[in-house]
Specification:
Elements (H helix, E strand, L loop, with lengths): L15 H12 L6 E7 L6 E8 L6 H17 L4 E7 L2 H17 L3 E9 L2 E4 L13 E2 L6 H8 L8 H6 L6 H22 L6 H18 L7 H10 L3 H9 L6 H14 L5 H14 L3 H14 L4 H11 L13 H14 L1
Parallel strand pairs: 3-4
Antiparallel strand pairs: 1-2, 1-3, 4-5, 5-6
Helix pairs in contact: 1-4, 2-3, 6-8, 7-8, 7-9, 7-10, 9-14, 10-11, 11-12, 11-13, 12-13
């Protein structure tokens, strides 16, 4: 899934070097040791979907076959009949998958326009055998310095140096900021215990819902939460499914840039045991924005924090099926969420 640019951008790709230059911007990072599938629409030939797999290392025929078959299923399920396959890495790792792709995809009714391998700034085609077009030493290819990459970067798309570099942008804060969050989280836990024991009915729930509304309103206005205590209050509040679902119902895609900032900030600051809700909300927002790479990394954070977290598992299945961002619709309005929980409370 490719992130959506901040402004419209149309790049014509007529050669392998231009195609390879735009792939990092479609994925959100520069791929390494990867098999990338680009799904094309017809008759315009536009890239409509980009997805990636890790290369089996060491080579494993059974794993390679599983990867290629899964790619075929994703393409056919989403009604794509044209594709380009690009492997990033040495021939010993790429060629087994490239050979399988040349067999399995056409057998599934998918036209393969090219199968490429990229390594150390050079590119080879598995389909072209003409030395004048595709020399044995490969064709030199650029990435960041290619004009096509410049157009996409100018439109607001970004490409991290690697997937691990992108993951670092949502990793847990350490050092003094992390220590401050640990202390603030302890205070937020104590306050939650006090509110749960308060004589006012549902005081803890009311405080959590207020924390969500305050955070979303603040970020939509261009601001940020001002202290570790505010972040900790929100992180602790989101452990309530009622509060988390209220936050989920407020993720209007019109404000996705502000929501990405909010849930990124909270995912980074949340202490162990509190990251799953924030990371899941970040994943949903990234999916809305078409940023599949960030969405998947956010789900990695959520499931590492709580392996059975239901929202993360639900979103994981949706992203694994390459469902488009248009499917990332809000499950309910905040009012419908409130009514649903009230009905459940009365019934039980």
């Amino acid at each position: 899934m490719n992130p959506q640019p901040k402004s419209p951008a149309l790049v014509q790709v007529r050669a392998a070097d231009a195609l390879i230059a735009v792939v990092p911007y479609l994925l959100g990072f520069h791929p390494q040791a990867s098999l990338v599938i680009l799904a094309l629409s017809q008759p315009d030939g536009r890239v409509r979907l980009a997805f990636r797999f890790d290369l089996p290392d060491p080579p494993d025929h059974a794993v390679a076959a599983q990867i290629v078959r899964h790619a075929a299923v994703l393409l056919t399920r989403n009604e794509f009949a044209d594709a380009v396959v690009i492997g990033y890495g040495p021939g010993t790792l790429v060629t087994p998958l490239a050979d399988l792709a040349r067999q399995v995809l056409p057998a599934s009714g998918i036209r393969v326009h090219d199968v490429l391998r990229v390594q150390d700034g050079r590119c080879w085609s598995y389909l072209c055998t003409e030395p004048s077009c595709c020399p044995a030493e490969g064709l030199p290819v650029g990435t960041s310095d290619h004009p096509a990459a410049g157009v996409l970067a100018g439109a607001g798309l970004a490409a991290a140096p690697s997937r691990s570099a992108l993951a670092a942008t949502i990793s847990q804060l350490t050092g003094p900021e992390g220590d401050a969050m640990t202390e603030a989280t302890a205070r937020a836990e104590q306050e939650a215990v006090r509110l749960a024991a308060a004589p006012r009915p549902r005081a803890l729930l009311a405080d959590g819902l207020a924390a969500v509304r305050h955070a979303i309103t603040t970020y939509r206005a261009g601001g940020t939460l001002g202290s570790a205590d505010e972040f900790a209050r929100l992180a602790v509040a989101l452990t309530s499914l009622r509060v988390r679902d209220d936050a989920w119902a407020r993720l209007d895609p019109v404000h996705k840039a502000a929501h990405l900032r909010l849930w990124t900030d909270l995912t980074r600051r949340a202490r162990p045991g509190y990251a799953a809700p924030a990371a899941s909300l970040l994943a949903f927002t990234a999916w809305q924005a078409g940023d599949g790479a960030l969405a998947n990394l956010a789900l990695d954070r959520a499931l590492a924090d709580q392996p059975g977290y239901s929202m993360a598992l639900l979103l994981h299945d949706a992203l694994a099926a390459c469902l488009p961002p248009a499917v990332a619709r809000l499950p309910m309005t905040p009012e419908e969420v409130a009514a649903c929980y009230d009905d459940f409370r009365r019934d039980h």
